[in-house]
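Structure first, sequence second, as always.
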């Protein structure tokens, strides 16, 4: 949350400076932020965003396992589309590492198709009468 506020405030300040109309002579124009100010802000903001990502990840690992485990245990057919999506993501990462470009649309289709099929399967199982 703090990083979001920092990003919003910095962006708002920059946007305000960009849109502000002040007639200035060429000698009065500010050249921009100081070099060392920018050099120190980059690692600080990087550290803040990294810390926020770690905190969110830990929070999700603490909160999410029970609902996910319950969902998967009641619907075991969900596992295969999830694993196939992980395979597609892994394949794309390996391909990018080997400098082979796979268009993102193909990856989205490869991930979305099994998920759509599983969604249809879940709806079909829900609407079938139970004997």
């Amino acid at each position: 949350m703090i990083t979001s506020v920092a990003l919003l405030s910095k962006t708002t300040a920059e946007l305000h400076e960009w849109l502000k109309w002040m007639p200035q002579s060429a000698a009065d124009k500010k050249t921009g932020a100081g070099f060392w100010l920018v050099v120190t802000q980059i690692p600080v903001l990087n550290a803040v965003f990294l810390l926020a990502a770690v905190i969110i990840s830990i929070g999700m690992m603490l909160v999410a396992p029970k609902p996910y485990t319950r969902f998967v245990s009641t619907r075991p057919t969900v596992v295969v589309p999830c694993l196939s999506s992980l395979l597609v993501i892994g394949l794309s990462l390996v391909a990018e590492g080997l400098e082979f470009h796979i268009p993102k649309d193909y990856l989205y289709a490869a991930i979305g198709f099994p998920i759509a099929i599983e969604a249809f399967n879940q709806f079909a199982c829900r609407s079938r009468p139970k004997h």
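Margin note: Residues 2-17+32-63 form one domain.
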